[in-house]
Design goal:
By secondary structure, the protein is α+β, with helices and mostly antiparallel strands. Helix content is 45%, strand content 12%.
Length: 576
C-alpha cells in the first residue's frame, strides 16, 4: 500500500516536472567543459547556483545517476560526472583516476557509435586528440561535477543520449532478473523483478552516509519461502525507482517532513492543499492554532486539480527510522485532510493549560518540546516511540498510552517538580484517554476548586504549603525539593509532618503579614482533602501533578494581580 501511494505521488510530481527522469538525479554541477564540433576545448566555465562564494555548490541540474550502485567500484556516468571520471583529476592516486577516466571515455565512445551524433563524436575527438590542450583550473577538485557541452549544447539534454543511457547504464541490468516475469506488487504488470533497489533514501536519521533501503533481503534471516533478495516482495524496476525518488522528494522538502531526533515523518496529500501540517506539528503558533479553532473546514482550504469534494482529498504519512542500511517503517497513516484538521483541533484543545509563569493560557507546543520533557537529556536519550505516538495522536485522534504518563510522573519525581511542557503532556494523555473512553477523569485547563479527588487536592495542598514556607522563611531548599516524590506517591506518609511544620510558619505570618496569613489559611482549608491516601495509582499521581501545577499557577496569578493593584494605587497617589 505504501509503494502504491508513493507511485501515485511520483506520477503527479513527474507531470509537474518536480521529479527526475529515470536514471537521472538532480545534482549541483560546478563546472562546464565546453568543446566545439571538432572536439577542441573552449575552456572550463564555473557554474553558479547562487548563495555566495562559501555556499555556492554549483548549478542544480539533472545528470545521469546510478543511485546506490556506485560506492567504491568504477562506474562512470554518461557525459556528466565527477572530475576524477571526466578528466582523471586525482591528487593522491593517479592510477585510480586513470581507471575511472578510461571507463568514462569508453562509455562515451559506445554512445558515439550507437547514436551517431556529431556532438558526441566531438567528445571522443577531444579525448583522442585535444585532451592535452585543456587548461584545468587550480581550484577544481576531484569531487566536483563537470557537465560536457558541445557548440553550446549540453549533451545530457539530448533525447538520443538519454535513451542510450537508459539502455546501457553500467550494472543497472544486474539489478533485474530478466529471465523471469512476475506480477509487480505495485502496478500489477508482469515485469522482471528487481534484485535490490537502485535508489537509496537520504535524510532518514541514523542511516548510513550513502542512504538506506526501504526494503532489502540480503541475508538468510530475511528470506521467505526460499525467495532471496528483492524477489521476497517482487517490484518492477520502474516502480522501485520512482517510488523511492518520490519519498526522497518528501524527505528533502521541509514542508513535507518532520524530523525528531532519530525519527522522521513524511506526509503528503492526494491534491494540493494550503493547510500547513508541518508548522502545526513542529512549532505551532498561537495565531494559527486560533484560526484552526475558529475557521470552518471548507473546500476553500484545498486547491484541487478537478472538481471533487474536500472529503476526497486523502492524507498520507509514513514514519521512518534507520537500522544500519535499512529503513524501518514504524507507521503508515492513510486518512483524509478534514479528519486530520479535526484531530488537530482536538489535539490543541487537549493541550490548553494555564501557564503558571504568565497566568494566561500557555502557547501550544510542538512534538519535540513534548517529547523532550520526558528525558533528562533528550539529545541522547530520546527514543523514536515517543514522537511517533504523539504524531499519530495529533493526526489520527488516537489516545496516548499509560507508559507515556508513567515517564512523565517519573520525571516529576526525579526533578522534584513539574514543568509547563510536562504538565501539558500529562493533561494531553488524560484528555485523549477520556475521549477514547478509557479514563473518565475530567481535566480542566486551570484550577478546579470543585474537584474532590484526594490526589488532586493533595497536589493543591503541597503548592499551598510550599507558598506558606516561602512567605515565612524563604528557604534555600523548599519542602517540594525534599518531599515531592513521597508526597506524590504516598501522601499519608508525609502530609502530617508537613502540616505540623506549616503551623509554625503560619504563626510567624500572622505576626508579620496578617493579610497573607488570612488568605493562605483560607486556601489551606479549601484544598484539604477528606483523607490522605496511603498510595496513589499512576493516574492519581498525574492528577496530583496537575493539582500542584494548577494551584501554583493560581497563586502566581493572584500575586501578579496584587502587585498590579498596588502599583496602580501608588501611581494614583503620585498624581494626587
Amino acid at each position: 500500500m505504501l509503494y502504491q501511494r508513493l507511485m501515485e505521488l511520483a506520477d503527479r510530481l513527474r507531470a509537474k516536472g518536480k521529479l527526475e527522469e529515470s536514471l537521472m538525479l538532480e545534482t549541483p554541477v560546478k563546472w562546464e567543459l565546453e568543446l566545439d564540433l571538432q572536439g577542441k576545448p573552449q575552456g572550463i566555465t564555473r557554474l553558479s547556483g547562487g548563495g555566495g562564494p562559501k555556499k555556492d555548490r554549483g548549478l542544480p541540474m539533472q545528470v545521469p545517476s546510478l543511485g546506490g550502485l556506485r560506492t567504491s567500484g568504477v562506474l562512470p556516468y554518461l557525459l556528466a560526472d565527477k572530475a576524477e571520471y571526466v578528466l582523471g583529476v586525482w591528487q593522491e592516486d593517479e592510477s585510480r583516476a586513470k581507471k575511472r577516466n578510461d571507463a568514462f571515455v569508453k562509455l562515451v565512445k559506445e554512445c558515439a557509435q550507437e547514436t551517431q551524433l556529431p556532438e558526441v563524436q566531438a567528445v571522443v575527438d577531444f579525448y583522442t586528440h585535444y585532451r592535452a590542450d585543456l587548461s584545468i583550473p587550480p581550484d577544481l577538485k576531484e569531487s566536483d561535477y563537470i557537465v560536457i557541452s558541445v557548440a553550446g549544447k549540453r549533451l545530457i539534454d539530448l533525447p538520443a543520449v538519454r535513451q542510450f543511457w537508459l539502455k546501457n547504464a553500467p550494472d543497472v541490468m544486474d539489478l533485474v532478473d530478466s529471465n523471469r516475469k512476475v506480477a509487480c506488487l505495485v502496478c500489477g504488470r508482469y515485469e522482471p523483478p528487481i534484485r535490490r533497489h537502485l535508489i537509496k533514501l537520504k535524510g532518514v536519521p541514523g542511516g548510513q552516509t550513502g542512504g538506506v533501503s526501504l526494503s532489502s533481503a540480503n541475508a538468510p534471516a530475511f528470506y521467505s519461502y526460499a525467495l532471496e533478495e528483492g524477489f521476497v516482495s517482487p517490484i518492477c524496476f520502474e516502480c522501485s525507482e520512482y517510488a523511492n525518488k518520490a519519498l526522497n522528494y518528501l524527505l528533502d522538502e521541509n514542508e513535507h517532513h518532520l524530523s525528531v531526533r532519530n525519527l522522521v515523518y513524511a506526509f503528503w496529500t492526494l491534491y494540493e492543499t494550503e493547510f500547513d501540517f508541518f508548522s502545526f506539528l513542529s512549532q505551532p503558533r498561537p495565531e494559527t492554532v486560533e484560526e484552526l479553532f475558529s475557521s470552518p473546514i471548507t473546500a476553500k482550504q484545498v486547491k484541487l486539480q478537478k472538481q471533487v469534494k474536500l472529503q476526497e482529498n486523502e492524507f498520507y504519512a509514513v514514519a521512518l527510522s534507520a537500522s544500519g542500511a535499512r529503513a524501518v517503517v514504524r507507521s503508515f497513516i492513510e486518512t483524509t485532510v478534514p479528519r486530520v484538521q479535526q484531530n488537530l483541533q482536538r489535539w490543541f484543545k487537549c493541550q490548553q493549560l494555564i501557564d503558571w509563569r504568565t497566568g494566561k493560557v500557555g502557547e501550544p507546543l510542538g512534538i519535540y518540546a513534548l517529547s523532550a520533557c520526558l528525558y533528562r537529556d533528550a539529545q541522547k536519550e530520546l527514543r523514536p516511540e515517543v514522537p511517533k505516538l504523539l504524531i499519530e495522536c495529533a493526526l489520527t485522534g488516537s489516545c496516548l498510552p499509560d507508559w507515556i504518563l508513567y515517564r512523565a510522573v517519573e520525571r516529576n519525581r526525579a526533578e522534584q517538580g513539574i514543568t509547563y511542557p510536562r504538565a501539558v503532556l500529562i493533561k494531553l494523555v488524560l484528555c485523549t484517554q477520556k475521549d477514547c473512553k478509557q479514563n473518565q477523569m475530567e481535566v480542566t485547563l486551570m484550577l478546579d476548586k470543585q474537584n474532590q479527588d484526594p490526589a488532586y487536592r493533595c497536589g493543591r495542598l503541597l503548592a499551598i504549603l510550599e507558598t506558606i514556607q516561602k512567605r515565612a522563611v524563604d528557604p534555600k531548599a523548599t519542602l517540594v525539593d525534599r518531599y515531592y516524590g513521597s508526597a506524590s506517591t504516598a501522601p499519608a506518609s508525609v502530609f502530617g509532618t508537613l502540616l505540623r511544620t506549616a503551623q509554625s510558619h503560619l504563626s510567624k505570618l500572622r505576626k508579620e503579614n496578617e493579610p497573607a496569613y488570612i488568605n493562605l489559611s483560607r486556601e489551606l482549608e479549601e484544598a484539604m482533602p477528606n483523607q490522605f491516601p496511603t498510595a496513589l495509582s499512576l493516574h492519581q499521581q498525574a492528577l496530583f501533578a496537575l493539582g500542584y501545577y494548577h494551584q501554583r499557577a493560581q497563586i502566581k496569578q493572584r500575586k501578579a494581580q496584587h502587585q498590579q493593584k498596588t502599583k496602580s494605587e501608588e501611581d494614583n497617589n503620585d498624581e494626587n
